[in-house]
């Protein structure tokens, strides 16, 4: 099983587990003592193809799924709706695998955006969206090739018989709404560490382009970052897999997990990167960056590895590309003026209890969920008593518990 998780916030904790078979399983992850009884689940199948992202609506009443079938589907879990009728909307407007979907928190359950391997961003309004011939909804706003602002990409040329690098992928890897600027969405892509902030307010007759020339000029990002992944004169940037918004002590910050195995920090709304400004002569090099989070064992050189920040804004969790490892960082100092983030060797807390790649991670209130290639999803909670017992008798406790250790 290759799954992605999204943790429901508020009320009874639930977990949405999406698979490469196109199904979504909803499990109650309330703390329980009887490990022999699997929690009750509800299963829906919105797709016949792999699901690459799943998101709860802000009020936890709907789920949006992004799939390899080039569509987004909106499903309800209401018990009053028959299982075969739970897919409410089919959204079609991309020409490639849809990699990310995000709900607009200002329009609960009505407005969302999506990003695709085709490099485009689509905005959807479930209240007024037009429908194609087959009944699928079409986007109310589209941004084609959102991370190719220079226009058409030319194919590299080389003498006959010579190999040249291909054109970097411009696919959209993640989208994130932010409340620091009205109607704004942040996007990341697979080929660089540059982020864009877009104005995606619902279009009106006054804002639509009047001519074909004007249409080609619109839209443009309100803010664009520089690339913090180009450390010490690196020749090319590294892609971003996930974006996460800070809260509480880390409000007005955006964290981005790169395939350079580091978490970079950006400010809002300008997207100015705080990380990546290290002196190349530093003894510790990139691991000494006070605004980048890394560990010598953390490898995130896979676009299936994700990251998430806790609702309180203090903790950041990342998956890992090998050995069943996930990592937890205290990012509370990142929001302080002049505060130094914890980075470098020994900075993270290592979470071990699975095998293979740990891909999806997500939070509920006081609960972290991790999903791995071994087909398991684990939920992690702080428990002082269990932690003490694990330290006292690790061999015996290993049969029932997985626990974190200081890296």
Could you characterize what this model shows?
GO terms for molecular function: protein-macromolecule adaptor activity. Pfam families: WD40 (PF00400). The protein has a 5-stranded antiparallel β-sheet, with no helix packed on it. Strands 1-2-3-4 form a 4-stranded antiparallel β-sheet, with no helix packed on it. Residues 205-216, 280-285 and 337-346 have low confidence and may be disordered. The protein has a single domain, classed as Methylamine Dehydrogenase, Chain H. Strand 21 (315-318) and strand 22 form a beta hairpin. The radius of gyration is 21 Å and the shape is globular. Helices cover 5% and strands 33% of the residues. The protein is built from 3 helices and 27 strands. The protein has helices spanning 212-217, 384-392, 394-397, and strands at 4-7, 14-18, 24-28, 41-44, 51-56, 62-67, 71-76, 87-92, 98-103, 111-116, 121-125, 141-143, 172-178, 184-189, 196-199, 223-224, 240-245, 253-258, 263-267, 307-309, 315-318, 325-330, 349-352, 358-364, 367-372, 377-380, 403-406. The longest helix has 9 residues, at 384-392. The chain has 407 residues and is mainly beta.
